[in-house]
Recover the amino acids of this structure.
């Protein structure tokens, strides 16, 4: 059974990425109508494709317009992307026949890259709990982390009214043991804007994710990390690269790494062929834990891959820069909103 | 690289042109450019082609148009803009004087644009100091050389130089002796120039512009081919190029025919390479069209051209360019104001095919500054009111002499 095998790979059993990948492709081609027609339009099918690299990656945009679902039986849950522009942008929906793979996949990479040094840590979660945001993949992910690696005193600091700044301020001031602050990039900015500052105990760390899409303020990753280090006195700030459409996450700043069952390639946006390491392209993720939707995705982010498989994210592929008297879409939208 | 003082020195060296001399020499210069063997034409084709990557066919067509206009229409244009040297008004008479130097800041997205601008300035007696764009620095200097080759003295009234657009010091030096400024670019870059121009100095700003096409009932059978040319020319980079086409009729059929024409054009006049960001933006348009209900996608194998027929969401949206166009069905012209509302401030050209009375109606209704036949978007007459305003008459200074 494919699901069991993937769970085994996540648990550490050795596996052949290409072989497993092709079987995941065959499964998804068979069970997901949207993906099947997408592949057929490209002349790709399980008989024709010889390696995981030849499997056509589905644009994440598809999740906004179609049901990208390969599960057998009706889905039990879904995650939804957060709307980012003020206009009526459609939100992507990721359906699951079970959250077992998601729950298993999130653990090993988090442990390795964010919490390698101790089994548990007190967590301050700068995001709403699933109770308030039942379809947020980030909230669900953080809840699992809190269960698996949160020490007593771990708490959520976002409620229905937003960031609980007073409680957060008090908790940070009173912290007498190492803490981990995990949350959205924007929540950290709010925290800093509210004037919260402290020197957190040694061993404290921060993990931020989500970026600044559609927000009024934008900071570069190094600006954001500098701000967090400056205000909170933590020495380690780690960026988490993930998205609603995936099942697995990547960690790191200039150099991002992920689990063994998820590989990243960069594709030339002009031809959608793989570009050589060191050159920028659209980030395409092959995430074998993404069994219930599509394991072969191409994002709207630009990145550069390194020979060891790690990569850097250059940011969301911007609306094209305007040349001459033409106007870029982003500027046009800003004018409208 | 030229320093700011080099720029200033070049400005000071400019000789004020004799307008009558300009009006007799420049049409002859333009006529020479129309000869396929002309050495300046050939150099321009080679160098502009190499710099921009635009298909030679489009560059040739652009040169033919602009030089054809200059060869036959320069005097009439000046006459239309400035019919009389002196006018009378109650209590006074008024005479116009040209700016000693007009500073042109060119954008480079469409080669050939500098020719009418430089010729127009010379023809009203203004010297022309030109900044060329990094992306296309060749056409203006070659044109000026061709003027100098025909008339050495007249050639000393124009100069084209490159300096980085980001350099305030260079801009200040260029502005020091300019008595009029013409700036092309994004709203942002035009605004930053405006901030440095003395208030009250003639300043013609050509910033962000969006154009469209409308195909009405009664459009000719070759409407898709005409539309394809408007979209493909200079890879849609011109302010006149349509981003969206509204079809009062069978829009999916039109879109399919347009796609076939773009494919044909791509084979003969291929698109220049686009940047990573542009290619990614084109991919995003395609991804949405592929999965969205109500949308049909026609596309080349690479990102060379893209047609999206969207029957559900028809409001105007700018294109990422590179020959990417949306086609929407239209019940009637009266729907357009609502559909164009987000873009209204930016609208320039509407290329139109259909009944003459609909063209009139469009002129009233949708806030564009130019209506032209479909297929002719890239060929505005030299006397056009660029972005809704006259050109030459806005450069001059009127001096009133009162009765006393």
């Amino acid at each position: 059974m494919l699901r069991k095998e993937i769970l085994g790979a996540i648990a550490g059993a050795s596996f052949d990425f290409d072989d497993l990948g092709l079987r995941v492709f065959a499964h998804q081609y068979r069970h997901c109508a949207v993906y099947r027609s997408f592949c057929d339009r490209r002349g790709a099918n399980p008989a024709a494709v010889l390696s995981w690299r030849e499997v056509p990656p589905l644009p994440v945009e598809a999740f906004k317009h179609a049901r990208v679902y390969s599960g057998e039986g009706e889905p039990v849950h879904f995650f939804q992307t957060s709307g980012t522009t003020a206009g009526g942008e459609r939100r992507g929906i990721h359906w699951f026949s079970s959250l077992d793979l998601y729950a298993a996949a999130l653990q090993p990479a988090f442990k390795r890259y964010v919490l390698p040094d101790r089994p548990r840590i007190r967590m301050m979660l700068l995001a709403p709990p699933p109770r308030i945001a039942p379809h947020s993949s980030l909230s669900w992910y953080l809840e699992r982390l809190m269960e698996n690696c949160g020490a007593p005193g771990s708490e959520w600091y976002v409620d229905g009214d937003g960031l609980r700044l007073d409680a957060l301020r008090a908790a940070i001031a009173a912290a007498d043991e190492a803490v981990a602050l995990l949350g959205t990039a924007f929540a950290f900015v709010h925290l800093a804007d509210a004037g919260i500052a402290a020197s957190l105990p040694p061993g404290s760390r921060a993990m931020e994710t989500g970026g600044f899409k559609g927000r009024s303020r934008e900071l570069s990753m190094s600006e954001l990390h500098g701000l967090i280090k400056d205000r909170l006195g933590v020495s380690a700030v780690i960026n988490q690269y993930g998205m609603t459409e995936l099942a697995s996450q990547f960690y790191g700043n200039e150099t991002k790494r992920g689990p063994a069952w998820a590989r990243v390639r960069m594709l030339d946006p002009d031809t959608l062929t793989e570009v050589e390491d060191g050159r920028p392209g659209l980030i395409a993720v092959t995430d074998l834990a993404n069994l219930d939707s599509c394991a072969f995705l191409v994002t709207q982010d630009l990145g550069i891959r390194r020979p060891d498989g790690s990569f850097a994210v250059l940011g969301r592929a911007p609306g094209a820069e305007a040349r001459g008297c033409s106007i870029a879409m982003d500027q046009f939208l800003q004018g409208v909103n | 690289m030229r320093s700011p003082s080099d720029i200033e020195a070049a400005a000071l060296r400019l000789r004020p042109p004799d307008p009558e001399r300009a009006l007799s020499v420049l049409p002859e210069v333009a006529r020479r450019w129309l000869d396929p063997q002309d050495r300046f034409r050939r150099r321009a084709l080679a160098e502009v082609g190499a710099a921009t990557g635009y298909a030679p066919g489009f560059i040739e067509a652009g040169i033919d148009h602009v030089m054809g206009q200059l060869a036959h229409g320069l005097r009439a244009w000046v006459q239309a803009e400035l019919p009389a040297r002196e006018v009378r008004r109650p209590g006074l008479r008024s005479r116009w004087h040209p700016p000693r130097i007009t500073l042109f800041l060119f954008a480079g997205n469409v080669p050939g644009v500098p020719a009418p601008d430089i010729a127009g300035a010379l023809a009203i007696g203004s010297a022309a100091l030109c900044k060329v764009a990094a992306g296309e620095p060749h056409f203006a200097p070659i044109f000026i050389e061709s003027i100098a080759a025909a008339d050495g003295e007249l050639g000393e009234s124009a100069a084209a130089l490159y300096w980085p657009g980001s350099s305030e010091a260079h801009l200040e030096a260029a502005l020091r002796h300019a008595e009029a400024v013409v700036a092309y670019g994004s709203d942002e870059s035009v605004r930053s120039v405006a901030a440095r121009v003395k208030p009250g100095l003639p300043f013609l700003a050509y910033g962000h512009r969006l154009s469209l096409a409308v195909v009405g009932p009664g459009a000719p059978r070759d409407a898709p081919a005409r539309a394809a040319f408007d979209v493909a020319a200079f890879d849609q980079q011109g302010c006149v190029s349509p981003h969206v086409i509204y079809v009062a009729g069978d829009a999916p059929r039109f879109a399919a025919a347009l796609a076939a024409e773009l494919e044909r054009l791509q084979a003969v006049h291929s698109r220049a390479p686009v940047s990573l960001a542009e290619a990614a933006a084109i991919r995003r348009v395609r991804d949405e069209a592929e999965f969205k209900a109500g949308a049909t996608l026609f596309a080349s194998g690479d990102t060379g051209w893209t047609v999206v027929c969207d029957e559900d969401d028809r409001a105007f949206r700018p294109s990422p360019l590179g020959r990417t166009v949306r086609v929407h069905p239209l019940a009637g012209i009266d729907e357009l104001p609502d559909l164009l509302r987000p873009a209204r401030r930016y609208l320039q050209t509407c290329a139109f095919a259909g009944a003459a009375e609909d063209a009139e109606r469009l002129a009233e209704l949708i806030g564009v500054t130019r209506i032209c036949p479909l297929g002719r978007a890239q060929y505005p007459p030299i006397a056009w009111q660029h972005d809704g305003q006259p050109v030459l008459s806005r450069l001059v200074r009127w001096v009133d002499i009162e009765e006393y």
In short: The first strand of chain A starts at residue 58 and ends at 59. The mean pLDDT of chain A is 92. The first helix of chain A runs from residue 2 to 11. The two ends of chain A are 50 Å apart (CA to CA).
